[in-house]
Amino acid sequence: MPVSIQPVTVSDIARVTGGRSFGNASAIVTDVTHDSRQVKQGCLFAAVRGELFDAHKFVPQVMQQGAVGVISELVRPDDFSGAWIQVDDIRRAMALAAAAVHHHPSR
Question: Taking the model in full, what pTM does it have?
Fold first, then answer.
């Protein structure tokens, strides 16, 4: 008998990452990526700031590509219209979010 897998929402991701969600918390998340070129409908974009590069500059682009929202260490911009999850540690949150979305494949 097949196991029914529940969809993962922005609210679920906020809970597992210890983040604060803003916007549509009931939006379904189908994938998590930090690569703006990989974003498609249903993705949550992890905006990572590095020493030389800040992925936040791709936020408008990924939203046009169908992302449900962004997970970031930064505060949600006032003019942002999608879901936003603010976290303390983006790299840790990205790993936890991906595990949740893909139903913990390492288990």
Answer: 0.91
